[in-house]
TrEMBL record:
Transmembrane segments: none annotated. The keyword Hydrolase applies. The keyword Hydrolase applies. PANTHER family: AMIDOHYDROLASE-RELATED DOMAIN-CONTAINING PROTEIN, AMINOHYDROLASE SSNA-RELATED. Keywords: Hydrolase. It comes from Pigmentiphaga humi. It comes from the Bacteria. Its EC number is 3.5.4.32. InterPro entries: Amidohydro-rel, Metal-dep_hydrolase_composite, Metal_Hydrolase, MTA/SAH_deaminase. It is an enzyme of class 3 (hydrolase). One of its GO terms (molecular function) is 8-oxoguanine deaminase activity. This is 8-oxoguanine deaminase.
Amino acid sequence: MKTRINGEWVVGFKDGRHALYRDACVVYEGDRIVHAGDGYEGEADRVIEAPGCLLMPGFIDTHVHSGHRALHKLLTDIGRPDLFGQPYMEVTIARAGTRIQGYPNYLTREQAQVDAGVALHAAFTVSELLRNGVTTFVELGGHVIVQEALWKQCEALGIRGYLGPGYDSGRWASDEDGNLTRAPYPDGGLHLFNDAVAFIERVEADASDLVHGILVPREVENCSVDILRRTVAAARDLGVPMATHAGYNVIEFYETVREYRKTPIELLDSVEMLTPALNIGHANFISDSPRLNYSGGSDLRRMGDGKVSVSHCPVNIVRRARVLDSWKSYREAGVNMTIGSDTYPRDMIMNMRTASYHGKVMSHDLTAATAEEVFEAATLGGARSLGRDDLGRLAPGAKADIVAINLARKDVLRYGPIWDPIRSLVECGVGDDVDMVITSGEVRMREGRIPDVDLGALRGEAQAFAERVWGQVQDWDPLRRTARMMCPPSFCPDCE
């Protein structure tokens, strides 16, 4: 069946880049785009009217961690200074002899199988992404049980997921006094690597375009050279992309330099991992950053030469007093910039705006990180990172992944008069403006409603789950802090 969607603006594709059309349409048949732009005179079996809407390719979120992020809610405006603003270390490291609650990514298989939060986390994650106009996402390193729960949700709600069970050779731990220690696995993490490969083989054998595999050695400083080399070889054999966290934290940077006399990026280069198949999470603390006072580094050049992708998660890192230095220099070096949400909210429009504003400030250039550039990063950049030329664009032959953004809502004045809908979206938009989401030619959300998903009830479940977790924080926190001690509520009359 051939479907035509009429919109006020359409982001088509021409001469290798996005092209904007006024009073145009998108036509698709089956799961593929037939036409995007103006001048269409063919017939259609069905017509969808989207007045006042911007029709555009679905967002590609290249950095997702499953969950409602209850523990990260305890890190707003506060945190341990000795962890240098790194939320991952604050919410995943338990005091010796204890176990974190509400964060299943580091559980054993036996623990994860009986964890009540896994299914809730997956449902919350995929529903939030879909509600915000994300049609493809990359999950970086959750437990294989987490990935299996996400797989079910991708199939149920019709969103495309690149799922990567995380593995490493050990992990950060804490002693009784809250000091950081390293806890290596007896087999160097080989069992986790094998689990990840087996999962990817199952996914690829399923042959559904809604679910794909990606190899994710979680954090570069916790992975042995052997595991990294196995990753590169497996990526070639399986034909799948790779992702890892690198250049994301002061501790990670100096620990890697201390252990290998190489920066994290140099370590990845030494195992031939810096290729277009690699998506590096954050990469904001690289040798070129003036905040590290590291002399003679060439990380940015190495990443550019390798044509790697960086999943830039601007809202998450700026909340932790970190920033990319700078968007303009990364692009000029040849790095493929993409946008990720990482923690919360999974609002790609908000992340585009934050990337644009901080890209200008850190580049000292008001023409840097333009609306065009961040929009491209959230669509075409994500597609390039996955090796897909049929995603991130509305072009004949591309997947029918279409999002309608309502720029003419009758209940807000936020947009005001619109001269350029892309600039208006980046400057004024929020995820709630997403009116319709189509993936592979199927309408998955309309007027903010996802079939068979009660968003209010889902949020209520998440709140109740979070309340239970917050009541137990002192049982595993390395410093024995309660939730109120970690994050005193604003204007709290009885908080110290």
